[in-house]
Amino acid sequence: MQLSRSAHVDTFCRDNLPPFETWPELRFDLPDVQYPERLNCGVELLDATIAAVGADRRCLVSPDGRSMTYGEVRRAADQLAGALVDEFGVVPGNRVLLRGPNNPELVICWLAVLRAGGVVVTTMPLLRPGELSTVHEIARIDVALCDGRFADDLLAADMGEARIALYGDGGPDDVLARAARRTDAFMPVDTAADDVALLAFTSGTTGRPKATMHFHRDVLANADTFSRHVLKPKPDDLFTGTPPLAFTFGLGGLVVFPMRVGAASLLVEKASPDELADLISEHGVTTCFTAPTAYRAMLAAGRTDRLSALHSCVSAGEHLPAATWHAFCDATGVRIIDGIGSTEMLHIFVSSAEDDIRPGSTGLPVPGYRATILGPNGEELPDGEVGRLGVKGPTGCRYLADDRQTAYVQGGWNITGDTFMRDEDGYFWYQARSDDMIISAGYNIAGPEVEEALLAHPDVAECAVIGVPHDDRGSIVKAFVVLADASGPVREEQQAGAKAKELQDFVKARIAPYKYPRAIEFVTELPRTSTGKLQRFRLRDTSAPD
């Protein structure tokens, strides 16, 4: 395989692509994903869209009523791109970290980096200093753009020589406010379609995150497959949802998909299901992206009367139970589009919509993708048998300098870590996760990372973390904890509750709060083999519902 001539002056990303022989087989059978050699997705999502629908069409909307047109977004992105080049010395290929909640400012930063030829590294605003230090260690960040409200943990992280710029307060040091005073024109960088556009981080089962590398063409490919052929948005649609833009589910659903067709996005920094329902009603939202947890919560709260403007709902991040699908459809008339995607593949690759939906099934392969069920030796299994899900398409796994590449890609297939069954009609039915990843309310949580945080507490001698079923969140993190002798016994239920809360607060302070163990059980020992290997399956068996 031969790559195109790169526009990157800083070749770090291209130098750290995995060896070609470890890449998945990429398929460009669909005419929609056959892109030219030179391509900048930040240009396509603005300039090409403006050429199609006009610069005056609304693009980004805030809950407070602020609205920006496509023309205004392009001007702001180019002003910031110019500032990144002139004030911070950004050259094509530099990695630029973004830290902030979902709002127009974060999207402008994302577009500006792409138009400047940089590589975007969007992070969760709740990451703690240690987690941010790891991101820098892996991605070698050159510049960080951070919402001022979330600066403390970034400033406390080990970011090496990376330059940090804050935005959001409108003051003299606000990089966006300074950029807005620029009057010179900016010419976007003519990147190659296979230049790396973004690094998306995903937790690994070892607890150390992996950086997935996505090209400019990849960003568009998910819009030109799942969005175009399954979701089928129109320019008059208004999107909203809860997934952070650091998650590729949120990036696609709240930025790339609407902008690819000239639609608008209502960006919400934080919303409970009740608040989300009210925003959908107030703004006339037509398309919603969120996890099954939020759809269930809106049903339970009796808020479905606020959802009358919706005609499309997309669910991903965890399995959507048939009961939830039916209840939501009965209450709203909206048939939720379920789907499975991954950070490695960038977005959804198995899904169905409208009359093709079979409640409880994840769906059919998205046009442009092929999916199959693989046995333990990589052989394709017949319909009706349970095995590993394998996927091929125009996007695929490329980890940045990580030996785990050969675990995710086998025989040309992307192996997602999920077990599925395919029926005789070609529909895929989710069975379980096949690794130690815990998916809770749409968040991927690596059990070993939570264990590491717990073990830093002086009272914890040993611990093990698993996922256990939960009605509202799909799964929750449960920790089995062996306390150190010096901590004293936990004899009474009240003592156990106090100690559990202490440990939960401790974990929240060390890693992103959504990863904390919602259930803690104190035990005297953990089940192990004669050689000392932890037997997680025995913990799962004791935690299984009756």
Features:
546 residues, alpha/beta, GMP Synthetase, Chain A, domain 3, nine-stranded mixed beta sheet
Q: What would your notes on this structure say?
A:
β23 (460-470) and β24 (474-483) form a beta hairpin. The protein has a domain at 444-543: ANL, C-terminal domain (GMP Synthetase, Chain A, domain 3). The protein is built from 16 helices and 25 strands. The N and C termini lie far apart (53 Å). The chain is α/β, with parallel strands linked by helices and 546 residues long. The strands form 6 sheets. The protein has a 9-stranded mixed β-sheet, with helices on both faces. Strands 16, 17, 18, 19 and 20 form a 5-stranded antiparallel β-sheet that branches. A 4-stranded parallel β-sheet has the order 4-3-5-6.
Distance between the termini: 53 Å
Note the main sheet: 9 strands, mixed
CATH fold group of the domain at 444-543: GMP Synthetase, Chain A, domain 3
Helical content (DSSP H or I, runs of 4+): 25-40%
Radius of gyration, rounded? Answer: 23 Å
Would you report the number of β strands?
A: 25
CATH class label of the domain at 444-543: Alpha Beta
Shape: globular
CATH architecture of the domain at 444-543: 2-Layer Sandwich
Report a brief summary of the structure.
With 546 residues, the protein is an alpha/beta fold.
